[in-house]
Amino acid sequence: MLARGLFTKTSLRSKPFGILKSRLSFTAPVSGRAIYGKMQDIEYGNSLEKHKDLNLPRPPPRVIREGDYVLLEGDDHFSKFIQVTTKGHFDFRKKKVKIDALIGQPWGCVFQVDANRKLVRTTESVLRGVKIEASAAEVDRELDDGSVPKDVALDNVAETTKPSVQKLDQDVLRDMKQKGDGGQQIIQALMDNSSTFGEKTEYSKEKYIAKKKKKYQPFVRVLQPEAHSIARSWYRNKPEKICYMREDALAFIMTMSNVQYGSNVGIIETCNGLMLSAVAEKMNGSGNIVDMHPNNSPIVTGLSYLNLSPEELKNIKHISLDYIPEILKRLEGRAPHQPEYNDRVTIKPEEYTTEKAAARAQSIEDVSQLLMDGLDSLIIATRHDPASLLFPVFPLLQLSSPFVVFSPYLQPLAECADRLRSECMAIQVDVVELWTREYQVLPDRTHPEMKMTAQSGYILTGIKVMQDKERRPAKKPRGGRSEEKK
Protein backbone atom coordinates (compact mmCIF):
# COMPACT_ATOMS: atom_id res chain seq x y z
CA MET A 1 0.00 0.00 0.00
CA LEU A 2 1.01 3.56 -0.55
CA ALA A 3 -0.26 6.30 1.74
CA ARG A 4 -0.13 9.89 0.70
CA GLY A 5 -0.75 12.59 3.28
CA LEU A 6 -1.40 16.11 2.06
CA PHE A 7 -1.28 19.10 4.38
CA THR A 8 -2.35 22.57 3.31
CA LYS A 9 -0.26 25.12 5.17
CA THR A 10 -1.78 28.58 5.44
CA SER A 11 -1.39 31.44 7.84
CA LEU A 12 -4.64 30.57 9.61
CA ARG A 13 -5.39 26.89 9.27
CA SER A 14 -4.04 23.47 8.42
CA LYS A 15 -6.17 20.72 6.91
CA PRO A 16 -4.64 17.25 6.95
CA PHE A 17 -6.21 14.46 5.03
CA GLY A 18 -4.93 11.20 3.64
CA ILE A 19 -5.33 9.18 0.49
CA LEU A 20 -4.54 5.48 0.46
CA LYS A 21 -3.88 3.56 -2.72
CA SER A 22 -2.27 0.22 -3.45
CA ARG A 23 1.12 0.23 -5.06
CA LEU A 24 0.28 -2.95 -6.97
CA SER A 25 -3.27 -1.91 -7.75
CA PHE A 26 -4.29 -2.04 -11.38
CA THR A 27 -7.55 -0.14 -10.97
CA ALA A 28 -7.77 2.62 -13.57
CA PRO A 29 -9.02 6.02 -12.41
CA VAL A 30 -12.44 6.97 -13.75
CA SER A 31 -12.99 10.63 -14.53
CA GLY A 32 -16.18 12.61 -14.35
CA ARG A 33 -16.09 12.89 -18.11
CA ALA A 34 -16.01 9.10 -18.44
CA ILE A 35 -18.90 8.63 -15.99
CA TYR A 36 -20.90 11.32 -17.78
CA GLY A 37 -20.20 9.57 -21.07
CA LYS A 38 -21.44 6.25 -19.71
CA MET A 39 -24.61 7.95 -18.47
CA GLN A 40 -25.08 9.45 -21.92
CA ASP A 41 -24.72 6.00 -23.47
CA ILE A 42 -27.34 4.56 -21.12
CA GLU A 43 -29.79 7.38 -21.76
CA TYR A 44 -29.16 7.24 -25.48
CA GLY A 45 -29.64 3.47 -25.51
CA ASN A 46 -32.95 3.80 -23.69
CA SER A 47 -34.13 6.38 -26.20
CA LEU A 48 -33.19 4.01 -29.05
CA GLU A 49 -35.40 1.31 -27.56
CA LYS A 50 -38.32 3.70 -27.16
CA HIS A 51 -38.00 5.18 -30.66
CA LYS A 52 -36.97 2.26 -32.85
CA ASP A 53 -38.89 3.64 -35.81
CA LEU A 54 -36.66 6.74 -36.03
CA ASN A 55 -33.58 4.70 -37.02
CA LEU A 56 -31.30 6.71 -34.75
CA PRO A 57 -27.56 5.94 -35.13
CA ARG A 58 -25.86 3.93 -32.44
CA PRO A 59 -23.29 5.81 -30.33
CA PRO A 60 -19.69 4.89 -31.09
CA PRO A 61 -18.07 2.46 -28.63
CA ARG A 62 -15.64 3.91 -26.13
CA VAL A 63 -12.53 2.33 -27.54
CA ILE A 64 -9.12 3.56 -28.62
CA ARG A 65 -9.16 4.96 -32.14
CA GLU A 66 -6.34 5.72 -34.52
CA GLY A 67 -4.98 9.18 -33.83
CA ASP A 68 -5.93 9.20 -30.13
CA TYR A 69 -3.38 10.03 -27.46
CA VAL A 70 -3.01 7.41 -24.74
CA LEU A 71 -1.18 7.29 -21.42
CA LEU A 72 0.84 4.13 -20.85
CA GLU A 73 1.61 3.37 -17.21
CA GLY A 74 3.68 0.50 -15.84
CA ASP A 75 5.77 -0.39 -12.84
CA ASP A 76 8.60 1.76 -11.52
CA HIS A 77 6.52 4.89 -12.22
CA PHE A 78 6.79 4.32 -15.96
CA SER A 79 4.46 6.66 -17.85
CA LYS A 80 4.47 7.82 -21.43
CA PHE A 81 2.11 9.72 -23.73
CA ILE A 82 1.93 8.43 -27.28
CA GLN A 83 -0.34 8.89 -30.28
CA VAL A 84 -1.80 5.66 -31.60
CA THR A 85 -1.02 5.00 -35.26
CA THR A 86 -0.87 1.87 -37.38
CA LYS A 87 2.89 2.14 -37.89
CA GLY A 88 3.86 3.76 -34.60
CA HIS A 89 5.98 2.39 -31.79
CA PHE A 90 7.34 3.45 -28.41
CA ASP A 91 10.49 2.71 -26.42
CA PHE A 92 9.96 0.29 -23.53
CA ARG A 93 12.75 -1.52 -21.65
CA LYS A 94 15.30 -0.83 -24.40
CA LYS A 95 12.91 -2.20 -27.01
CA LYS A 96 10.80 -0.63 -29.72
CA VAL A 97 7.27 -1.93 -29.21
CA LYS A 98 4.55 -1.61 -31.85
CA ILE A 99 1.33 0.08 -30.79
CA ASP A 100 -1.06 -0.87 -33.57
CA ALA A 101 -2.58 -3.52 -31.27
CA LEU A 102 -4.17 -0.74 -29.19
CA ILE A 103 -6.60 0.26 -31.94
CA GLY A 104 -10.09 -0.95 -31.12
CA GLN A 105 -9.26 -1.92 -27.52
CA PRO A 106 -11.18 -0.46 -24.56
CA TRP A 107 -9.61 2.10 -22.26
CA GLY A 108 -8.02 0.75 -19.09
CA CYS A 109 -6.99 -2.67 -20.39
CA VAL A 110 -3.62 -4.26 -19.59
CA PHE A 111 -1.05 -5.41 -22.14
CA GLN A 112 2.11 -7.47 -21.91
CA VAL A 113 5.11 -7.21 -24.21
CA ASP A 114 5.88 -10.55 -25.86
CA ALA A 115 9.12 -11.81 -27.39
CA ASN A 116 8.19 -10.33 -30.79
CA ARG A 117 7.96 -6.83 -29.29
CA LYS A 118 4.21 -6.73 -29.68
CA LEU A 119 1.50 -5.83 -27.20
CA VAL A 120 -0.66 -8.77 -26.14
CA ARG A 121 -3.76 -8.11 -24.10
CA THR A 122 -3.86 -9.86 -20.74
CA THR A 123 -5.79 -9.80 -17.50
CA GLU A 124 -4.97 -8.77 -13.97
CA SER A 125 -5.30 -12.33 -12.72
CA VAL A 126 -2.49 -13.38 -15.05
CA LEU A 127 -0.25 -10.60 -13.75
CA ARG A 128 -0.87 -11.72 -10.19
CA GLY A 129 -0.64 -15.42 -11.05
CA VAL A 130 2.71 -16.16 -9.40
CA LYS A 131 2.08 -17.21 -5.80
CA ILE A 132 4.43 -18.13 -2.98
CA GLU A 133 2.04 -20.01 -0.69
CA ALA A 134 3.25 -23.44 -1.85
CA SER A 135 6.89 -22.55 -1.27
CA ALA A 136 6.05 -21.13 2.15
CA ALA A 137 4.30 -24.37 3.15
CA GLU A 138 7.32 -26.33 2.00
CA VAL A 139 9.57 -24.21 4.21
CA ASP A 140 7.27 -24.81 7.17
CA ARG A 141 7.53 -28.56 6.67
CA GLU A 142 11.32 -28.35 6.48
CA LEU A 143 11.38 -26.30 9.67
CA ASP A 144 9.27 -28.90 11.45
CA ASP A 145 11.54 -31.70 10.22
CA GLY A 146 14.64 -29.85 11.32
CA SER A 147 16.25 -30.05 7.88
CA VAL A 148 16.48 -26.26 7.70
CA PRO A 149 17.60 -24.33 10.78
CA LYS A 150 15.17 -21.64 11.86
CA ASP A 151 17.85 -18.97 12.04
CA VAL A 152 18.78 -19.71 8.41
CA ALA A 153 15.14 -19.48 7.33
CA LEU A 154 14.72 -16.15 9.05
CA ASP A 155 17.74 -14.53 7.44
CA ASN A 156 19.45 -14.73 4.06
CA VAL A 157 22.85 -16.12 4.98
CA ALA A 158 22.48 -19.03 2.57
CA GLU A 159 22.40 -16.66 -0.37
CA THR A 160 25.93 -15.44 0.29
CA THR A 161 27.46 -18.84 1.09
CA LYS A 162 26.56 -20.50 -2.24
CA PRO A 163 28.26 -19.20 -5.39
CA SER A 164 25.59 -20.53 -7.80
CA VAL A 165 22.02 -20.91 -6.56
CA GLN A 166 20.15 -20.93 -9.90
CA LYS A 167 20.12 -24.13 -11.94
CA LEU A 168 18.68 -22.52 -15.09
CA ASP A 169 21.14 -20.79 -17.37
CA GLN A 170 20.54 -18.11 -19.99
CA ASP A 171 20.30 -20.66 -22.82
CA VAL A 172 17.35 -22.38 -21.18
CA LEU A 173 15.62 -19.07 -20.54
CA ARG A 174 16.21 -18.03 -24.14
CA ASP A 175 14.68 -21.28 -25.38
CA MET A 176 11.63 -20.76 -23.18
CA LYS A 177 11.11 -17.29 -24.63
CA GLN A 178 11.44 -18.59 -28.19
CA LYS A 179 8.89 -21.33 -27.51
CA GLY A 180 6.43 -18.66 -26.44
CA ASP A 181 6.39 -19.29 -22.71
CA GLY A 182 4.98 -16.34 -20.84
CA GLY A 183 6.52 -14.47 -17.99
CA GLN A 184 4.51 -16.44 -15.44
CA GLN A 185 5.98 -19.76 -16.60
CA ILE A 186 9.52 -18.36 -16.62
CA ILE A 187 9.20 -16.93 -13.12
CA GLN A 188 7.76 -20.20 -11.81
CA ALA A 189 10.65 -22.09 -13.39
CA LEU A 190 13.16 -19.76 -11.76
CA MET A 191 11.50 -20.29 -8.39
CA ASP A 192 11.48 -24.07 -8.77
CA ASN A 193 15.13 -24.23 -9.83
CA SER A 194 16.45 -21.87 -7.16
CA SER A 195 18.23 -23.77 -4.41
CA THR A 196 17.77 -20.96 -1.87
CA PHE A 197 14.26 -19.73 -2.63
CA GLY A 198 12.72 -21.99 0.00
CA GLU A 199 15.16 -20.67 2.61
CA LYS A 200 14.29 -17.02 2.02
CA THR A 201 12.13 -14.99 4.34
CA GLU A 202 8.64 -14.02 3.24
CA TYR A 203 9.83 -10.48 2.61
CA SER A 204 12.72 -11.71 0.46
CA LYS A 205 10.38 -13.94 -1.53
CA GLU A 206 8.09 -11.03 -2.31
CA LYS A 207 11.03 -8.91 -3.42
CA TYR A 208 12.39 -11.76 -5.53
CA ILE A 209 9.09 -12.28 -7.35
CA ALA A 210 8.56 -8.55 -7.85
CA LYS A 211 12.05 -8.21 -9.32
CA LYS A 212 11.52 -11.12 -11.72
CA LYS A 213 8.13 -9.77 -12.76
CA LYS A 214 9.68 -6.48 -13.80
CA LYS A 215 12.17 -8.35 -15.98
CA TYR A 216 10.16 -11.23 -17.44
CA GLN A 217 6.57 -10.01 -17.14
CA PRO A 218 6.53 -6.32 -18.10
CA PHE A 219 3.11 -4.78 -18.55
CA VAL A 220 1.52 -1.46 -19.43
CA ARG A 221 -1.96 -0.20 -18.69
CA VAL A 222 -3.60 2.01 -21.31
CA LEU A 223 -5.33 4.98 -19.69
CA GLN A 224 -7.29 7.84 -21.15
CA PRO A 225 -5.29 11.04 -20.57
CA GLU A 226 -6.84 13.47 -18.10
CA ALA A 227 -5.61 16.64 -16.47
CA HIS A 228 -4.63 15.00 -13.18
CA SER A 229 -2.85 12.11 -14.92
CA ILE A 230 -0.96 14.57 -17.13
CA ALA A 231 0.20 16.44 -14.03
CA ARG A 232 1.18 13.20 -12.28
CA SER A 233 3.14 11.89 -15.26
CA TRP A 234 4.99 15.12 -15.98
CA TYR A 235 5.79 15.71 -12.32
CA ARG A 236 7.43 12.29 -12.08
CA ASN A 237 9.40 12.55 -15.30
CA LYS A 238 9.94 16.23 -16.16
CA PRO A 239 8.62 18.48 -13.37
CA GLU A 240 10.28 21.56 -14.86
CA LYS A 241 7.83 21.41 -17.78
CA ILE A 242 4.95 22.28 -15.44
CA CYS A 243 6.85 24.55 -13.04
CA TYR A 244 6.97 21.74 -10.43
CA MET A 245 3.19 21.70 -10.05
CA ARG A 246 1.92 18.51 -8.40
CA GLU A 247 -1.52 17.07 -9.04
CA ASP A 248 -2.70 18.16 -5.59
CA ALA A 249 -1.62 21.73 -6.39
CA LEU A 250 -3.57 21.54 -9.64
CA ALA A 251 -6.69 20.42 -7.76
CA PHE A 252 -6.27 23.23 -5.23
CA ILE A 253 -5.97 25.82 -8.01
CA MET A 254 -9.12 24.53 -9.69
CA THR A 255 -11.00 24.71 -6.40
CA MET A 256 -9.93 28.21 -5.40
CA SER A 257 -10.49 29.65 -8.89
CA ASN A 258 -14.16 28.58 -8.79
CA VAL A 259 -14.15 27.38 -12.39
CA GLN A 260 -17.65 26.21 -13.21
CA TYR A 261 -19.98 25.57 -16.11
CA GLY A 262 -20.61 28.61 -18.30
CA SER A 263 -18.07 30.97 -16.70
CA ASN A 264 -15.50 33.18 -18.43
CA VAL A 265 -12.00 32.18 -17.35
CA GLY A 266 -8.73 33.93 -18.14
CA ILE A 267 -5.51 31.91 -18.09
CA ILE A 268 -1.86 32.94 -18.25
CA GLU A 269 0.46 29.95 -18.02
CA THR A 270 3.82 28.56 -19.03
CA CYS A 271 3.07 24.95 -18.01
CA ASN A 272 2.81 23.42 -21.49
CA GLY A 273 -0.96 23.74 -21.50
CA LEU A 274 -1.59 21.90 -18.22
CA MET A 275 -3.85 24.58 -16.72
CA LEU A 276 -5.60 25.07 -20.04
CA SER A 277 -6.34 21.36 -20.27
CA ALA A 278 -7.68 21.23 -16.69
CA VAL A 279 -10.06 24.14 -17.24
CA ALA A 280 -11.19 22.86 -20.64
CA GLU A 281 -11.86 19.42 -19.19
CA LYS A 282 -14.01 20.84 -16.41
CA MET A 283 -16.01 23.32 -18.51
CA ASN A 284 -16.76 20.74 -21.23
CA GLY A 285 -17.24 23.26 -24.05
CA SER A 286 -19.32 25.78 -22.09
CA GLY A 287 -18.53 29.40 -21.33
CA ASN A 288 -15.33 30.98 -22.60
CA ILE A 289 -11.66 30.29 -21.91
CA VAL A 290 -9.23 33.06 -22.84
CA ASP A 291 -5.63 31.90 -23.08
CA MET A 292 -3.43 34.99 -22.79
CA HIS A 293 -0.09 33.57 -23.83
CA PRO A 294 3.19 35.48 -23.36
CA ASN A 295 4.81 33.85 -26.40
CA ASN A 296 4.29 34.43 -30.09
CA SER A 297 2.03 31.37 -30.28
CA PRO A 298 0.16 29.39 -27.59
CA ILE A 299 1.62 26.15 -26.21
CA VAL A 300 -1.16 23.57 -26.01
CA THR A 301 0.73 20.30 -25.56
CA GLY A 302 -1.30 19.21 -22.56
CA LEU A 303 -4.55 20.20 -24.24
CA SER A 304 -3.85 18.00 -27.26
CA TYR A 305 -3.45 14.94 -25.00
CA LEU A 306 -7.10 15.09 -23.85
CA ASN A 307 -8.56 13.99 -27.21
CA LEU A 308 -11.27 16.64 -26.95
CA SER A 309 -13.78 17.02 -29.75
CA PRO A 310 -14.09 20.24 -31.79
CA GLU A 311 -17.30 20.95 -29.90
CA GLU A 312 -15.39 20.91 -26.61
CA LEU A 313 -12.61 23.12 -27.99
CA LYS A 314 -14.76 25.82 -29.56
CA ASN A 315 -14.89 27.90 -26.36
CA ILE A 316 -11.09 28.31 -26.16
CA LYS A 317 -9.71 31.60 -27.47
CA HIS A 318 -6.06 32.59 -27.72
CA ILE A 319 -4.65 36.09 -27.60
CA SER A 320 -1.17 37.42 -27.07
CA LEU A 321 -0.36 39.57 -24.06
CA ASP A 322 0.88 42.18 -26.52
CA TYR A 323 -2.74 43.27 -27.08
CA ILE A 324 -3.59 43.74 -23.40
CA PRO A 325 -2.39 47.39 -23.10
CA GLU A 326 -4.63 48.46 -25.97
CA ILE A 327 -7.59 46.56 -24.54
CA LEU A 328 -7.10 48.35 -21.21
CA LYS A 329 -7.04 51.72 -22.94
CA ARG A 330 -10.28 50.91 -24.71
CA LEU A 331 -11.71 49.72 -21.42
CA GLU A 332 -10.91 53.04 -19.79
CA GLY A 333 -12.84 54.87 -22.50
CA ARG A 334 -9.93 56.57 -24.20
CA ALA A 335 -9.54 56.58 -27.94
CA PRO A 336 -7.38 53.69 -29.10
CA HIS A 337 -4.05 54.60 -30.57
CA GLN A 338 -0.85 52.85 -31.41
CA PRO A 339 0.35 51.03 -28.27
CA GLU A 340 3.87 51.17 -27.04
CA TYR A 341 4.01 47.42 -26.40
CA ASN A 342 5.63 45.80 -29.45
CA ASP A 343 4.01 48.43 -31.73
CA ARG A 344 0.86 46.40 -32.32
CA VAL A 345 -2.56 47.82 -33.13
CA THR A 346 -5.96 46.34 -33.82
CA ILE A 347 -6.61 46.37 -37.56
CA LYS A 348 -10.07 45.93 -39.01
CA PRO A 349 -10.60 42.72 -40.97
CA GLU A 350 -11.35 44.56 -44.21
CA GLU A 351 -7.86 46.08 -44.16
CA TYR A 352 -6.27 42.67 -44.64
CA THR A 353 -5.62 41.20 -48.05
CA THR A 354 -5.99 37.50 -47.21
CA GLU A 355 -8.94 35.67 -45.70
CA LYS A 356 -6.76 34.01 -43.06
CA ALA A 357 -5.40 37.32 -41.83
CA ALA A 358 -8.88 38.83 -41.79
CA ALA A 359 -10.23 35.92 -39.77
CA ARG A 360 -7.33 36.29 -37.34
CA ALA A 361 -8.05 39.99 -36.90
CA GLN A 362 -11.74 39.30 -36.33
CA SER A 363 -10.84 36.67 -33.74
CA ILE A 364 -8.63 39.14 -31.88
CA GLU A 365 -11.43 41.68 -31.94
CA ASP A 366 -13.90 39.15 -30.52
CA VAL A 367 -11.52 38.14 -27.73
CA SER A 368 -10.86 41.80 -26.94
CA GLN A 369 -14.57 42.42 -26.56
CA LEU A 370 -14.86 39.35 -24.34
CA LEU A 371 -12.08 40.62 -22.08
CA MET A 372 -13.70 44.04 -21.88
CA ASP A 373 -16.92 42.40 -20.67
CA GLY A 374 -14.97 40.99 -17.71
CA LEU A 375 -13.64 37.66 -16.47
CA ASP A 376 -15.24 35.50 -13.81
CA SER A 377 -11.94 33.86 -12.81
CA LEU A 378 -8.26 34.50 -13.40
CA ILE A 379 -5.56 31.82 -13.21
CA ILE A 380 -1.84 32.54 -13.57
CA ALA A 381 0.72 29.73 -13.44
CA THR A 382 4.20 30.69 -14.57
CA ARG A 383 7.84 30.73 -13.59
CA HIS A 384 8.11 34.41 -14.56
CA ASP A 385 7.58 37.37 -12.24
CA PRO A 386 3.89 37.11 -11.26
CA ALA A 387 3.56 40.84 -10.57
CA SER A 388 4.33 41.70 -14.20
CA LEU A 389 1.43 39.47 -15.28
CA LEU A 390 -1.14 39.85 -12.50
CA PHE A 391 -1.50 43.61 -12.16
CA PRO A 392 -1.65 44.49 -15.91
CA VAL A 393 -4.61 42.12 -16.42
CA PHE A 394 -6.21 42.69 -13.00
CA PRO A 395 -8.64 45.35 -14.33
CA LEU A 396 -10.10 42.73 -16.68
CA LEU A 397 -11.35 40.71 -13.69
CA GLN A 398 -14.87 41.44 -12.49
CA LEU A 399 -15.57 42.48 -8.93
CA SER A 400 -16.09 39.70 -6.38
CA SER A 401 -14.28 37.27 -8.70
CA PRO A 402 -11.49 34.96 -7.50
CA PHE A 403 -7.94 34.90 -8.79
CA VAL A 404 -5.19 32.32 -8.29
CA VAL A 405 -1.48 32.77 -8.97
CA PHE A 406 0.93 29.82 -8.92
CA SER A 407 4.69 30.26 -8.79
CA PRO A 408 7.59 27.97 -7.86
CA TYR A 409 9.03 30.84 -5.80
CA LEU A 410 7.70 32.33 -2.57
CA GLN A 411 9.13 35.86 -2.49
CA PRO A 412 7.42 37.20 -5.67
CA LEU A 413 4.04 35.99 -4.40
CA ALA A 414 4.65 37.57 -1.00
CA GLU A 415 5.33 40.91 -2.70
CA CYS A 416 2.14 40.59 -4.75
CA ALA A 417 0.12 39.78 -1.64
CA ASP A 418 1.56 42.80 0.18
CA ARG A 419 0.60 45.12 -2.67
CA LEU A 420 -2.91 43.67 -2.92
CA ARG A 421 -3.49 44.25 0.79
CA SER A 422 -1.90 47.70 0.98
CA GLU A 423 -3.85 49.06 -2.00
CA CYS A 424 -7.10 47.34 -0.91
CA MET A 425 -7.42 45.58 -4.25
CA ALA A 426 -8.60 42.23 -2.87
CA ILE A 427 -9.81 40.45 0.22
CA GLN A 428 -9.01 37.01 1.64
CA VAL A 429 -5.50 37.32 0.24
CA ASP A 430 -3.40 34.36 1.29
CA VAL A 431 -0.24 32.57 0.19
CA VAL A 432 -0.49 28.79 0.45
CA GLU A 433 2.14 26.06 0.34
CA LEU A 434 1.05 22.49 -0.33
CA TRP A 435 3.05 19.68 1.19
CA THR A 436 2.79 15.99 0.35
CA ARG A 437 4.51 12.92 1.75
CA GLU A 438 4.13 9.42 0.38
CA TYR A 439 4.26 6.39 2.65
CA GLN A 440 4.79 2.73 1.98
CA VAL A 441 2.23 0.85 4.09
CA LEU A 442 3.11 -2.84 4.37
CA PRO A 443 3.17 -5.25 7.33
CA ASP A 444 6.14 -4.32 9.54
CA ARG A 445 7.52 -2.18 6.69
CA THR A 446 5.72 1.16 6.94
CA HIS A 447 7.94 4.15 6.25
CA PRO A 448 8.07 7.28 4.10
CA GLU A 449 9.15 6.87 0.51
CA MET A 450 12.89 7.27 0.05
CA LYS A 451 12.65 9.10 -3.28
CA MET A 452 10.34 12.09 -3.20
CA THR A 453 10.52 15.86 -3.32
CA ALA A 454 8.71 18.44 -1.25
CA GLN A 455 8.86 21.11 -3.96
CA SER A 456 5.47 21.96 -5.43
CA GLY A 457 5.44 25.74 -5.59
CA TYR A 458 3.31 28.32 -3.81
CA ILE A 459 -0.19 29.60 -4.52
CA LEU A 460 -1.59 33.11 -4.04
CA THR A 461 -5.37 33.35 -3.74
CA GLY A 462 -7.82 36.20 -3.27
CA ILE A 463 -11.07 37.87 -4.31
CA LYS A 464 -11.13 41.18 -6.15
CA VAL A 465 -12.99 44.09 -4.55
CA MET A 466 -13.60 47.71 -5.45
CA GLN A 467 -10.86 50.10 -4.40
CA ASP A 468 -11.63 53.25 -2.40
CA LYS A 469 -10.94 55.53 -5.34
CA GLU A 470 -13.49 53.63 -7.42
CA ARG A 471 -16.27 53.83 -4.83
CA ARG A 472 -19.16 56.18 -5.47
CA PRO A 473 -19.91 58.85 -2.84
CA ALA A 474 -22.61 57.86 -0.41
CA LYS A 475 -26.04 59.36 -0.97
CA LYS A 476 -27.35 61.89 1.55
CA PRO A 477 -30.17 60.62 3.73
CA ARG A 478 -33.68 61.85 3.02
CA GLY A 479 -35.19 64.69 5.00
CA GLY A 480 -32.10 66.88 4.91
CA ARG A 481 -30.69 65.35 8.05
CA SER A 482 -26.95 65.24 8.33
CA GLU A 483 -25.15 61.90 8.51
CA GLU A 484 -23.10 62.94 11.49
CA LYS A 485 -24.65 64.17 14.67
CA LYS A 486 -23.14 67.34 15.91
TrEMBL record:
Q: Which GO terms describe its biological process?
A: tRNA methylation
Pfam families (alphabetical): Gcd10p
Coarsely, its chief localization is nucleus
Q: Which family does it belong to?
A: Belongs to the TRM6/GCD10 family.
Q: Which organism's genome codes for this protein? A: Planoprotostelium fungivorum
Q: Which UniProt keywords apply?
A: Nucleus, tRNA processing
- Protein's cellular compartments: Nucleus
Gene3D superfamilies membership: 3.10.330.20, Vaccinia Virus protein VP39 (3.40.50.150)
A cellular component term from Gene Ontology for this protein is: nucleus
InterPro entries xrefs: SAM-dependent_MTases_sf, TRM6
* Name of the protein this chain belongs to: tRNA (adenine(58)-N(1))-methyltransferase non-catalytic subunit TRM6
**Top-rank taxon:** Eukaryota
User: Entry's PANTHER family?
Assistant: TRANSLATION INITIATION FACTOR EIF3-RELATED, TRNA (ADENINE(58)-N(1))-METHYLTRANSFERASE NON-CATALYTIC SUBUNIT TRM6
Q: Where is this region: Disordered?
A: 467-486
